[in-house]
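Quick one, T. Sequence first:
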Amino acid sequence: MIVKFDNETVWLSLNQLADLFGRDKSVISRHISNIYKEGELSKKSTVAKNATVQKEAGRKVKRIIEHYNLDVIISVGYRVNSKLGTQFRIWATQRLKDHLIKGYSINQKRLEQLQQTLRIIEKVVRMKIFP
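Structure tokens:
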């Protein structure tokens, strides 16, 4: 799945949301409609329309595809009833809990990369390559 990152958020299409949560597009679409209808989120600030070219019946067709930002992804994740939805809620709730209790969140992969970089710098300093 190719995920678009822009304007400090993640953007997914309806198809990608359906794949992410293991549900039919119509189910995800209904949740999104309810999110906007109930005033949980504003469509204006959470939807981006992007042109894409796709093959249909052997020809290339240009389509405008709506992409939904992280706010929508989280809202759908807390509404959808599926195994993947449950796994998402467990993951998201743990991140929120960690952030509230510790006051911060840790990106484990980036922390490991930083630690590796620091070890390399330490080795270079020990070798006294630089005056």
